[in-house]
Specification:
Helices cover about 35% and strands about 15% of the residues. The protein has 10 helices and 11 strands. It has helices at about 10-25, 55-65, 80-85, 130, 150, 165-175, 175-185, 190-200, 245-250, 260-275, and strands spanning about 1-5, 35-40, 70-75, 115-120, 120-125, 140-145, 160-165, 205, 220-225, 230, 235-240. Strands 3-2-1-4-7-6-8 form a 7-stranded mixed sheet. It has a two-stranded antiparallel ribbon with strand order 5-9. Helix 1 crosses helix 10 (about 260-275) and helix 7 (about 175-185) crosses helix 8. The model has no long low-confidence stretch (mean pLDDT about 90).
Length: about 280
């Protein structure tokens, strides 16, 4: 199974917790390939520097604890970004330029034909095979509806935080090429997500349990800790991530991820102990 994340050095906490949730909730015996796209665009903001070699080493140690054949593969796309998107209308997008770099997937020969892209604020509550084994042979990707967008925009508006890609089909239809052209010429509300949606030829819709952005049900496979609207004690939004452990427990009262978060803290401590 092939999994893709993207981000700078700050993505470590999300990737580690998300990866551990996959490894601890999955029963399949075959190894995982975890790909991480990163880059140095510190000319935009000082903190926009790549995930570090030490962070990759710790992630690799954690992955290999579960299967010695598990691999962490870091791909630096700085040169591609500078060539394709530097100075584009979406460089100062709603999140960060790191959300844009998955749009280079078709340009990277190491990316396999079937791969699951995940935002870092994703936790698996059940076996990843329930999601990964969906047949996408006739589709560019499979995705679930956006919790708010399906009401506010249109019923099949998808959330791009969980995308099961058929890269062969994406290359045939030019999905990523079309998305990159949009990024270069037009300021988009949700940047990469908007570009992907507008460039889609054929997608497979998945039930909400594969990208649940608001609730954690027994049936939930993927819990996405994206920004959420709360109505009490007054209408407001909060952006609580799974690695904000105390805050997450106070707001959501979850204990389903305790074993994962305990191990994450152990690896985090090891990383910090090794800092020069």
């Amino acid at each position: 199974m092939n999994i893709l994340y993207a981000g700078n050095y700050k993505v470590f906490d999300g990737v580690m917790t998300s990866m551990l949730s996959i490894l601890k909730r999955t029963k399949v015996k075959e190894p995982f390939n975890f790909y991480i796209l990163t880059m140095d665009v510190s000319f935009i903001k000082e903190e926009y520097t790549p995930i570090t070699k030490r962070q990759i080493d710790i992630l690799s140690q954690a992955a290999k604890k579960y299967n010695s054949d598990n691999e962490i593969k870091c791909i630096d796309v700085t040169d591609i970004y500078n060539r394709e998107f530097a100075g584009s209308p979406n460089e100062q997008c709603y999140c960060s330029p790191y959300t844009l770099i998955r749009l280079f997937m078709d340009m990277l020969p190491d990316i396999p034909d079937k791969i699951l892209y995940l935002d870092a604020d994703i936790m698996f509550n059940r076996d990843i095979a329930l999601l990964y084994n969906h047949d996408v042979s006739d589709y560019e990707y499979a995705a679930a509806r956006d919790h708010y967008g399906k009401y506010l925009i249109y019923p099949n508006y998808i959330n791009a935080g969980v995308l099961l890609f058929n890269m062969k089909k994406c290359r045939e239809t030019g999905l990523f090429e079309k998305a990159r052209e949009l990024i270069k010429i037009k300021k988009l509300t949700f940047a990469d997500q908007s570009a992907i949606i507008r460039s889609t030829t054929k997608k497979r819709m998945l039930p909400q349990k594969f990208n649940d952005q608001k609730f954690l049900h027994k049936s939930t496979v993927v819990r996405h800790f994206s920004k959420r609207l709360f109505y009490l004690p007054y209408p407001h939004t909060e952006n609580v991530k799974q690695w904000h452990i105390d805050r997450m427990k106070k707001v959501f009262r979850y204990n389903q991820f305790d074993d994962i978060l305990d191990e994450y803290l152990d690896w985090k401590e090891k990383l910090e102990d090794e800092q020069p």
